[in-house]
Design a protein that fits this description.
By secondary structure, the chain is mainly α. The chain is built from 25 helices and nine strands.
């Protein structure tokens, strides 16, 4: 049976805002934080790609559609700040509410981790949203397990933010099925499959055309890496080990790495044993099992034999590319580790109220002392910037021109290091800034390895650079050149193109002559589009029904009826 923490809810919620503000702080300044995959724009367009119906694999689906809709109401920079702050706060508050004792210790142990730091630095905001949802999913899953009223609507609402991307959807599904238990699996599993349909259905459609496999070399490139003594396994046990050394916070090295791992394993293991006396054996075994599964998946790419199996899956099974960055699955271990450590701290014998309070405060500050580099925007590395005016000018020009044609972006590579963003590595913002479909190279370079891209159309367009007639036949009507970033654009690549705009940071060219419609793929067929839109609508309706139930339970009957009838309180 679950127990609520002894703290008043509002006090606990306010207390959990402290680590959130300390972590996210600098990102709340005006502008956009642009790092690796974290690219927000003032107003993101809603395009076919936003729901997985473009030529590229649906890696940010349906997150792109949700952000596009949200930025019609909220400016993109404000939305980013709200998402980052609420994500860290929800992670802390969710862990605190879930833990039967020492709630603030659980909150800090869950949020002040190498996982949160590294995923912030690599720009995986949507994965962190799923991470924040895990305590809430587990709490709702326990209600489902117990047969408590409202368990299913709560589970749907807790999972909804997590399923915005494939990784988050899988993290949510694993937690939901484990928390609800085997007896509820015949209902939980279909529910999770359905809620994840907005990304797996477009993925299957891409796979049907042979456009769903990934380069098996990515398994080694994205494998968990060692950050200190003990190798990759020890780093993962301490909730770190991300593949990209540029995404490691300051201080995450040396003997602190095995020390954190030992703390989480020893404290977490003992605390979970104590937690079983509160929750019961079955839920805690499920929680521990989920954590072990996350560790196993995180290190699989580093284990001889298992790495070959992962390479086979990535190369031959459409959509299995989700497995290539294995370290992200250690999120499943973070929750049992945090709850276990909090329960272990609560085992401190009664030595007087003041001494016990001091011990609890000291325990809550221990993760901060072991990873000070997470403080204040991961050591100031989450620094907002503003987009140059050239971006708005290009967007306006494209909006004015009624002629068809997608946009080819040069230099032809996926990541940028703009001078105006202090040379930080980031994804090209054009696909999320412009109101037309854009074609960018999806060949990833990791270290000295070039990983084959997955977008066939991007490869075809890339081979046609410098040939305007061929570009026109492939549906390319515009060429956008971005300055102030590595990568050369030769005069031959722009020959015979018509200059339209030439600014300090961007230049826009028109492809002359008649531009054909983009080549059709399986996702262009009416049946495929109808199916994708139908599952998107079905998931949205399911979430709205669950939200309606929650509002009806929380609001007075008269207020709820007013909302239902008039759409406002």
């Amino acid at each position: 049976m679950t127990h609520r923490p002894r703290w008043p809810g509002r006090v606990l919620a306010a207390a959990c805002a402290v680590p959130a503000l300390v972590i996210v702080g600098p990102a709340l300044a005006p502008g956009f934080v642009l790092r690796y995959d974290m690219v927000f724009t003032p107003r993101q367009p809603l395009l076919a790609e936003s729901v997985g119906l473009g030529s590229a694999l649906p890696r940010a689906v349906p997150a792109d559609a949700v952000v596009a809709l949200a930025t019609t109401v909220i400016p993109g920079d404000v939305l980013q700040k709200v998402v980052l702050l609420l994500t860290v706060w929800a992670a802390a508050y969710g862990a605190a509410r879930l833990c039967p004792a020492a709630p603030l210790v659980a909150a800090v142990f869950y949020t002040w981790t190498a996982y949160v730091a590294e995923r912030l630095l690599i720009g995986h905001w949507s994965v962190l949203v799923a991470y924040a949802c895990l305590p809430w999913i587990w709490a709702a899953g326990l209600r489902v397990r117990e047969g408590a009223a409202g368990g299913w609507p709560a589970l749907i609402l807790a999972c909804a933010p997590a399923v915005l991307v494939p990784t988050g959807g899988v993290l949510a599904a694993g937690a939901a099925v484990a928390a609800a238990g085997l007896r509820k699996a015949p209902r939980t599993v279909p529910l999770m499959v359905g809620m994840n349909a907005p990304w797996w259905l477009p993925g299957l459609l891409h796979g049907a055309t042979g456009n769903g496999a990934s380069d098996p070399a990515a398994v080694d490139a994205f494998a968990a890496r060692s950050e200190g003594p003990g190798g990759a396994v020890v780093s993962v046990l301490g909730l770190g080990g991300i593949w990209n050394g540029d995404a490691v916070p300051a201080g995450r090295s040396g003997v602190l790495v095995p020390l954190v791992a030992l703390l989480l394993v020893a404290g977490g293991g003992y605390g979970l044993w104590r937690l079983a006396r509160v929750w019961g054996r079955a839920p805690v075994l499920a929680l521990a099992g989920l954590g072990l599964l996350g560790i196993a998946m995180a290190v699989a790419s580093t284990v001889p034999g298992l790495d070959a199996a992962v390479r086979w899956l990535v190369a031959d099974v459409p959509g299995a590319g989700i497995l290539r960055d294995g370290q992200k699955w250690v999120a499943w271990w973070a929750l049992p580790a945090a709850l276990g450590c909090a329960m272990a701290v609560d085992a401190i014998p009664p030595i007087g109220p003041r001494a016990r309070t001091a011990a609890l405060i000291g325990a809550a500050l221990l993760p901060v002392a072991l990873l000070p580099g997470l403080a204040w925007g991961v050591g100031g590395r989450l620094e907002p910037v503003r987009y140059p005016r050239d971006w708005s000018a290009v967007r306006a020009e494209l909006d004015r021109d009624p002629r068809p044609g997608d946009v080819l972006v040069l230099p032809f590579q996926p990541f940028r290091q703009f001078d105006w963003n202090d040379r930080r590595t980031q994804l090209d913002p054009a696909p999320r800034f412009l109101n037309r479909s854009t074609v960018v190279d999806d060949t990833l370079v990791v270290g000295d390895r070039a990983l084959q891209g997955e977008d066939r159309r991007a490869a075809e367009v890339g081979a046609a650079i410098g040939d305007p007639d061929r570009l026109a036949r492939l549906g390319i009507g515009w060429v956008l050149v971005e300055y102030g970033t590595p990568g050369a654009v030769g005069p031959s690549e722009l020959a015979r193109l018509t200059p339209v705009l030439d600014g300090r940071w961007l230049a826009l060219y028109r492809v002359p002559g008649s531009v054909a419609e983009p080549p059709r793929t399986v996702t262009d067929h009416t049946a495929a589009r109808t199916a994708v839109i139908a599952v998107d609508a079905a998931v949205l309706i399911t979430v709205l029904i669950a939200l309606g139930w929650w509002l009806r339970r929380r609001l007075p009957t008269s207020t709820f009826m007013s909302v239902a009838e008039h759409g406002a309180i």
